[in-house]
Amino acid sequence: MGKTLNIAPITRIEGHASVAVHLDDTGNVSDARLHVLSLRGFEQFVLGRPVEEVPRIVNRICGICPWQHHLASNKAADECLGLELPPTGRKLRELCQMMAYIPDKILHFYFLAAPDFVLGPDSDYSVRNVVGIVGANPELAKKVVHMRYKGQMMLEKFAGKVIHPIAGVVGGFSKPLKEEERKEILQGIQELKEFSLFTIKFAREEVFPKYLDAVKVLGVFPSGYLGTVRPSDGALELYDGELRLMDQNGEYDQFKYSEYMNYIGEHTEPWSYLKFPYAKKWGDLKLDENDPVGVYRANTLARINVCDQMATPKAQEELDIFRKEFGRPTHLTLLYHWARLIELVQACERAEELLNDPEITGREIRCQDIQPRAGEGVGCVEAPRGTLIHHYQTDDNGFVTMANLIVGTTHNNAPMNLSVRQAAKAVIKDGNYDQGLLNRVEMAIRAYDP
């Protein structure tokens, strides 16, 4: 008789999920599925609201990346109202995007992913966590906590809130950056940049090489990729640019945010509450890890695959090392962790660039003449967990009549399910399994930082 192995809850992710691994009567994996109770309802909550209120509502969707929802929503609202932001207002928003990115990357690598690589996937689960990391290297652990706290508090001190932000407003930003604030933040960002360079060197030389065998087999399957690039040169963009949808062979379409519905569809399955976005032009979605159709991934590895280059020098040096080792595109799922640290370096460098821009302390931070109107807008940023799309329509009074959201983790629903199935088949054979093997299945999910 077959049986079902339930992995619940999945540990060290930002939320709640479980995996059901179905074994046939020989004890081998016949199927494996990721289950998420994901309904939030924000697409309905915001209907009938003034569009300028929506950025203060949707930041409650996620307590880990509220800034990305706040900023994408502001961008969509700006477009609905036909607003062109002053340069300083736009740059202050991008600065907050970079400052929110940095502690998020530190959180995932050291607190959520590192126990698998530093302590090992077979270590006792009671110590395979952040407490175990502290015990293994207390000095580094103290440094990590300090640097993440520093990043969070810098953002809170400048923008008022690090969680559930309100500093971005329709038409721009709510307050200017004072010169003394600029100098203080710049000093902190430079310290964080040095820590980011230490982190990626530490991971590249001492952590990841020990587990390249696991990298080559866990959760691996061919897919497409989605990310944002700078239109002028194809460099990776985290705040504003154009979307690039790349197939598994490296061919791609590049398009404006407003065209996303021409390329991305949303599929449903009766066994999941979470929708399955897919690439329309590649055919109807086929959830087969050996021959997937329509499946693309978002998040760090996707962005590293689709971009032609990084936008900053130290990050480009790291991308050169990565591509020399793994090529482009690479389909090795656990490389999400490596790609995440390359992005950490770029976020620090880009924040430093913005803080050295003379316009960043300008006084013109918001459009002055803002009037309600009927309109439509698509706002998009790269959230840490993937491309984030907010799409609104408004009536003549500026009230929201339609809202559609595709968040980063939703893009990865299909690939996470395929990675789980592939990983389970790779490690569970003839009915033999243990906690270490089941943790390897979880590792295929944690790579996506869902």
TrEMBL record:
<dbReference type="Pfam" id="PF00374">
    <property type="entry name" value="NiFeSe_Hases"/>
</dbReference>
<feature type="binding site">
    <location>
        <position position="43"/>
    </location>
    <ligand>
        <name>Mg(2+)</name>
    </ligand>
</feature>
<feature type="binding site">
    <location>
        <position position="65"/>
    </location>
    <ligand>
        <name>Fe cation</name>
    </ligand>
</feature>
<keyword id="KW-0560">Oxidoreductase</keyword>
<comment type="similarity">
    <text>Belongs to the [NiFe]/[NiFeSe] hydrogenase large subunit family.</text>
</comment>
<dbReference type="InterPro" id="IPR029014">
    <property type="entry name" value="NiFe-Hase_large"/>
</dbReference>
<keyword id="KW-0533">Nickel</keyword>
<keyword id="KW-0479">Metal-binding</keyword>
<protein>
    <submittedName>
        <fullName>Nickel-dependent hydrogenase large subunit</fullName>
    </submittedName>
</protein>
<feature type="binding site">
    <location>
        <position position="65"/>
    </location>
    <ligand>
        <name>Ni(2+)</name>
    </ligand>
</feature>
<keyword id="KW-0408">Iron</keyword>
<dbReference type="InterPro" id="IPR001501">
    <property type="entry name" value="Ni-dep_hyd_lsu"/>
</dbReference>
<dbReference type="GO" id="GO:0016491">
    <property type="term" value="F:oxidoreductase activity"/>
</dbReference>
<dbReference type="GO" id="GO:0016151">
    <property type="term" value="F:nickel cation binding"/>
</dbReference>
<feature type="binding site">
    <location>
        <position position="405"/>
    </location>
    <ligand>
        <name>Mg(2+)</name>
    </ligand>
</feature>
<keyword id="KW-0460">Magnesium</keyword>
<feature type="binding site">
    <location>
        <position position="62"/>
    </location>
    <ligand>
        <name>Mg(2+)</name>
    </ligand>
</feature>
